[in-house]
Each structure stands twice: as structure tokens, then as C-alpha cells.
Amino acid sequence: MTIRTLLVDDQALVRGGFRLILESAPSIDVVGEACDGAEAVALARTARPDVVLMDVRMPQLDGIDATARIVAAEPATKVIILTTFDLDEYVFAALRAGASGFMLKDVRPAQLVDAVHVVAGGDALLAPSATRRLLDRFAGELPGDERPLPDLRDLTERELDVLRLVAQGLSNAELAAYLVLSEATVKTHVSSVLRKLGLRDRVQAVVLAYDVGLAKPRPR
Predict the structure, then answer these.
(1) Domain 152-211 has CATH 3.40.720.10
(2) Alpha helices in 109-171, H assignment, sequence order
(3) At the fourth CATH level, which superfamily is domain 3-126?
(4) Which among 2, 36, 66, 71 could bridge 98 via Cys, Cβ 3.0 to 4.6 Å?
(5) Which residue has the higher pLDDT, 91 or 154?
(6) Cβ-contact 109, 131 below 8 angstroms
(7) What is the pLDDT of residues 112-146, one digit of tens each?
């Protein structure tokens, strides 16, 4: 299956570099480029990409608003946020807006290709520990959205434990060791948590855990 990908960045050189890398992979097809968020939203409607690589700071419409609009209009489209090493504060808001993960702009070519495959397959892009670093830094500083939170009463005690540990940055292998379960069983529990709470992926599960108080940012 070919993964349809849209590139969004206000720097033509960045877009061109990413296009060269992605088009070297036989399973990835770059279906368009956008230089700002407004153009990205319009292209996402017509090109219907599987994955969008989205810059954050752009003219006309930034990557946060563009992500929210694309995810709302095309729920099957997954958005990867492009960020700098400093993990700027806008990335957290973009994750709330529905992004499936984030990556650094200086990523190696093979990692870029792998990231597109990972997100297209329905998984969160980075290890939960990377997401936790971001949330620990910015949770409580940025306003949340006004959507009602899912009801955790639908989760079993085991599923609550899994959600709490996912938010602490544990991988499936670490979860399995901690809970003395097989990795297959852990994956089943994680999938059940996502399904019951109506979440797209593991990144949104971490954000939710902070929202409901299952996880707390570490003191600075």
C-alpha cells in the first residue's frame, strides 16, 4: 500500500529535502506541498493524504490551527508535527489539536521514512517518554480545549493502571515487565483503553492522563 503524504513548511528548501527523502521510498507518495496552514487545509481536502508533515510556525495559519481543521475534516489523516530541538511550547497545543506525534526537523532520512510508516499504521510517532518530557515541561501552562473529558469509569482497574503507566512514559515492553503480563496482553489493554475513551493513539492517551490528573508534571 502506498502512503499518501503532504508536506507543510514555509521554507521551500525544507519541503524539497523532505520530498527527496520520502520519494526515495517506494511505499511513499508525496501528493502535495503547502507553504502555510491555510494552503495545507485546502490541499488536505482535495489530496486526502494519509500523513501530513506539519510545521508549527507559519504565516496565514499556523500548524496548530491547521492540524485541528485537518483532523476535524479528515479523521483518517494523521498529522506529524515538525519541531526544533527545543520542543517549543506550540507543540503541546498541536498534540491537543489532534496530532499523532512530533519529530525533530534534523531527523535522519531513514527515521523520517520510518516515522511516516509508523503513524500511517496507527501508532503514536515517538516513545511515550519523549511525549512525557514535553508534557512535563508545558502541562498547566497552556489552556486546554473545552471538550468534555471521557468518563474513566468505563475502564477496568487494570486498564486504569495501564493508562497511568503509559502517561509515565513506559513502553509496551516496560509495561509488560511491570505488570507481569505478556506484551500481547499489554497491547490488548492499550487498544481497549483507546477504544473506550475514543482516542486516536497513545499520544492522546498521555494528554488525557494529564488532563484528568492521572499524571502530574514534575516540579522544575
Answers:
(1) no
(2) 109-120, 128-138, 157-167
(3) Response regulator (3.40.50.2300)
(4) 71
(5) 154
(6) no
(7) 998 899 888 876 666 555 666 666 665 555 445 55
